[in-house]
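Severity: low
Component: inverse-folding endpoint
Summary: output formatting inconsistent between runs
Steps to reproduce: submit the following structure tokens with default settings.
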């Protein structure tokens, strides 16, 4: 998993509450269990005017010009501003896979669905919970300034205006320190386990010495 320390990027404001995982990545794209390749179909039913199916050439599809991700001013966005209860609905892990594959690394919202929130950390995304009034302030800032970039510093647990649009922007966010550590070090559940590889090997050798008959080959 890629380490997360600090990011400065364009923020895209998705001004919709209760965005569910079926909207983030529709059900017809769930056939694959690979973590990559979902980015082109992120928000598929909002992003395109035709119905999407796996294997389609998205470059030939009809794009919805009114959808926020299709607007040129938000090209290259890596920070998503969202409204309350983001990621509700089914527990599909494909939702954070699609966001990460598109390029999103940070999601800022007043609240998240619990399972989606937990899945974000397992896939290197940073979901940040802020008061609704603070999220409103960020929406206003981004919408009023084309190309506005935010800096999200995980070490300091702060959000700044990256390009001096607002020198007064200095927002602190709370985060569980274990999850913070995992993101800073790029550790998913497998990575955390492998940190104890020496202890695991020592335990296995001890068990072989104590009960060698359990490790004998069966003829």
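Observed output (run 2 of 3):
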């Amino acid at each position: 998993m890629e380490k997360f320390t600090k990011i400065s990027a364009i923020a895209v404001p998705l001004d919709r509450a209760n965005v569910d995982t079926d909207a983030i990545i529709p059900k017809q794209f769930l056939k694959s269990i690979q973590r990559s390749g979902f980015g082109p179909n992120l928000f598929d039913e909002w992003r395109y005017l035709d119905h999407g199916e796996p294997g389609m050439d998205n470059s030939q599809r009809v794009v919805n010009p009114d959808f926020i991700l299709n607007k040129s001013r938000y090209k290259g966005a890596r920070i998503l501003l969202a409204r309350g209860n983001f990621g509700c609905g089914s527990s599909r892990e494909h939702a954070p896979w699609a966001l990460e594959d598109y390029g999103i690394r940070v999601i800022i919202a007043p609240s998240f669905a619990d399972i989606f929130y937990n899945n974000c950390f397992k896939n290197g995304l940073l979901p940040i919970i802020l008061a609704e009034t603070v999220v409103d302030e960020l929406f206003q800032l981004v919408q009023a300034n084309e190309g506005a970039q935010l800096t999200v510093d995980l070490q300091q647990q702060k959000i700044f205006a990256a390009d001096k649009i607002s020198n007064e922007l200095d927002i602190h966010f709370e985060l569980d320190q274990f999850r913070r550590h995992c993101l800073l070090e790029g550790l998913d559940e497998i990575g955390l386990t492998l940190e104890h590889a020496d202890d695991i090997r020592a335990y296995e050798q001890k068990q072989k010495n104590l009960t060698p008959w359990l490790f004998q080959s069966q003829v």
